[in-house]
Automatic annotation (TrEMBL):
A GO term from the CC aspect: plasma membrane
GO molecular function: xenobiotic transmembrane transporter activity
Membrane-crossing residue ranges in chain numbering: 51-71, 78-101
Pfam families: ACR_tran
Species in which this protein is naturally found: Hemiselmis andersenii
UniProt protein name: Membrane transport protein MMPL domain-containing protein
Keyword flag Cell wall biogenesis/degradation: no
UniProtKB keywords: Membrane, Transmembrane, Transmembrane helix
InterPro entries: Acrflvin-R
Amino acid sequence: NGRRRIVVYANTDGGDMGRVVGDIRALIAKQQLPTGTFVSLEGQFQAQEQATTLIAGLSLVSLAMMFLVLYSRYQSAVLAAIIMANIPLALIGSVVAMWLAGV
């Protein structure tokens, strides 16, 4: 693209990458950048952000599909919602059971 650029490489040394990038963004936001310049954060963090967005979207789609399957089976949105409301409780119960079993 013919633009000049400055590349800065860094490692987080075991730190939380999201927190480190948040701190970097906060520091950059305080700076006055010259006209025509911009900051782009790339690398592993960019891939992690894209994966997180994709997983969140797919999770919502899967929950909607589960609701549709339950609705088609029971022909009642209320019953499907009641069943869906128990999913977090089932997850909590399974984690507690695994903790008690020492897994």
